[in-house]
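Quick question, first post here. What does this chain look like in 3D?
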Amino acid sequence: PQLFFLLGTAFIQLGNIVQGIKHLKKSISLKPDNAFVHSNLGNALKDLERFDEALDSFDTAIELNPNNADIYNNKGTLLKNLKRFDEAILNYDKALNIKPDHAYAHNNKGNVLKDLKKYDKALASYDKAIQINPNYSDAYNNKGNTLKDLKRYDQAIHNYDKAIEIKSDHFDAYNNRGIVLHDLKLYEKALDNFDKALNIKPDHAYAHNNKGNVLKDLKKYDKALASYDKAIQINPNFVDSYNNKGNALKDLGRYEDALVNYENVFKLKLDYDYILGKVLHTKMFLCSWNNFDSQTKKINNELNKKSKTIEPFPSLGLLDNLVFHRKSSEIFVEDKFSSQSEIQSLVKYNNIKPKIGYFSADFHNHAILHLMMDTFKNHNKSNFDFYGFSFGPIKNDKWRNEVKKYFIQFEDVSKISDKEVANLSQKLKIDIAIDLTGFTSNSRSGIFSYRAAPIQINYLGYPGTMGANFMDYIIADEVIIPKENFEYYTEKVLYLPNCYQANMKQKDISTKEFKRSDFGLPKSGIVFCSFNNNYKITPDIFDIWMNMLKKVPNSVLWIFKSNETASKNLKKESKVRGVDPNRIIFASFLPQDEHLKRMSLADLFLDTFPYNSHTTASDAVRMGIPIITLSGSSFASRVVASILTCIGLKELITNNKKNYQELGIKIANNPKKLLELKKQLKYSASKSPLFDSVKFTKNLEKLYLQLLKKN
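> Answer (accepted):
Ran it through. Tokens below.
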């Protein structure tokens, strides 16, 4: 039996676990009462994920030798892998009752406590293991991981340093230190650590994946994709890499390829965090609507269970449901920022002039800056000091170069950590911090979780509640958030007197003379248009648009072209609904001044639902194009209603799909009415507060002063 045991152990050490198990079982058949052999067999079966057999082996070993701490420790590790955490801790405790100085059991118990998010107890277990064995490199590494989860980054790095000092080839410590350095935006140092991990262990799939994440953030997409591919080549079932590769491809606008990767994640792990939402949102970019209703229903059901099924932003375009939107935000915030939840308040500063900080990823040629530019320009610099904090891509275009002039200080904080940005804001004594990005692209909500200012406001970028206890207020108006909807917002609601949306008084409009034929439009007949991103088009709203085309002879629908696949799918969907696909005309990208000019060729703008037009809606009004909207209950579905109310055209607001469809058909079939609306719009827009950026800015400043007086 001893020879078979030794042969089995040798095979396992050489990586031939199957042969090792065969020889261990032969040893047991010759001598069934050797607890040590049963325990080793359990470890081998665990490595092959034959968990039930492994448990039987450990139980037999314990029955033969109930006073062996190592066996309880090994069984605990198996139970941890099975996520039977309470039973795992019970076995570690049994090991420690037998042998209180069992460093491995203390370390392993710490790993379970970390998974249970019992961080203080986990740290105590690691400290006990290190106290017993000061050269226990894995315990330092695991302690570092716990501190990383707590975002105590300096302490985490110290522990990784200790692990590497003890064991210079500790590839996991290099990898984990790289993750922390990535979170701290120290990209080059992070890459160096991942490379060191890979020099020691070239098949370290996690290091390849994490290196890809840094390269993605550096916008080095080709290299990022290569790193993800390497990770997947090493481990074809590596769900994180499929997810991250999908994220990179989505950033590149390669939606079909992104969808393939997200669906791979979904196949490998149905309950992978946020994956169902990513699959559906990516399909919306492609206008691929198969299973839309069933997937939306499933997401809703999962949110009711508090599952991490969809990120906040994609939820806005799926359902007009305030509960749905609040839950998605709250679940996301709890997941991403719970470790900072104790950072609740800052003392009030006694600045001579109030200091207002605007935080945005979009200080460049972007819709948010297009809306806000006049506000920044018109702000009263005698009464306030204004600071800009930019954490988005550095695009030195004319928009960025101009806006920088309107701040007393403009900080590019894209390469420092969330906590460092918050610390900088605190050092500058910013009184009010306005988040203009929310949960949209390049979001940095973590900055506000560390309290950038005593007063923090969610405004303009994200049309919904952020579900975060660190966001104090949301700016809206009486149309956007009626008082009866306050309960669905975790922020306190601040009202502006007119429309909540900032706007420029004037925009550059091309002087080119465009004709309908320049864009493939018919010379006569009604041109419906909708220049929203394609992901805002739901199958329900497309049904209505197709019904309008059927009821309005010689009409066409002019839609923004997001990508080739979406265009093909929309034509296919029109055919399914009995409409000639040639009646859908696609508008390609143009510079903003030319896009505005071509809008004037349209007759009637059709709003999307539940995610309305935002900047595009005020652009339509600016260019004299009447816009009909379906107003719901959510913030995102009431933006156009707010704009139309502000310019005195409430008659273009509907409250259900039937009325929305009928209104569009009625106006389109009545040329006289359409002409009257255009005249009325031209007059109302020039007289309304919508484009009075000076008045808007003064109202916003009054709001800030009221807050400072109140708080």
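The chain has a mean pLDDT of 96.
The longest helix spans residues 693-710.
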